[in-house]
Design goal:
209 residues; alpha/beta; Arc Repressor Mutant, subunit A; Rossmann fold
Length: 209
Amino acid sequence: MDETEKETIDIVIADKAPLIQGGLANLFDNDDRFTLIATAADGERFLEAVRRMTFDVGIIGWDMPYLDGRGVLKSLRNSIETTPRIIVFTGNASPDVPRQVMQLGGAGFCSKSESPERLIETVLAVSEGRMVFPFMDMSKPGGDPFGTLTKREQELLSALAEGRTNGQIAEDLGISLNTVKFHLKNLYGKLSVRNRAQAVATFLTAHRP
C-alpha cells in the first residue's frame, strides 16, 4: 500500500489538566499519522466518547475526577463491545500503577516524565497490537495498595481513621456529601474492602508501629 493511502490512527485524549490536553492535542494534530477525534476532562466523559465514537487508541490519565483511570479500565474490561486500546499517560510515580494498568487490560503505560517522542512511539506500537510497559517483576506480589490512592483519598482515609462522619468530612474538606461518597467508593475498591470499618482496620494494620 502506498504511504499516502494508509489510514491515520484515531485517538481520544482524557486528562484532568487543560494544559496537558492542549499540549497533547497540538502534539498529535501536528503529526499526519494521527487524527485527534476528541478530548475529555475526566473518565466519565471519556467513556461517553467510547460509547459514541469509534477510535483506535485512548490516552488517559490515572488520577482524574469523577472516574479515574482504574475505573475506566475496569468499565472497559467489563464491556461486551469492541473497545479502543488504552494507554495510561500519568505523572503518578507509584511503581504499582503500571502493574495495575496491565492487570486491568491496558495496552500501554507512559510516564509524563518521558519525552513526547516516547508517547508517540507508544501510541504507534499499541496501534499495531503491541503492549508497551516499563520493566516489572511480575513474580513479585502487587505493591502497597495505599500507594495507589490519590491525595484526596488519602485525606479521606485519615479522616475515617479519626472517626469523622461523611458529613464532617465534607465540611472539613469543603466538598459535597456526594463527592465524599464518590471518593469513598473508589477508596474501598482500591483497598478491596466493603465499608469504612474494614478500610480503617486495613489502615491501622498497615500503619501499626
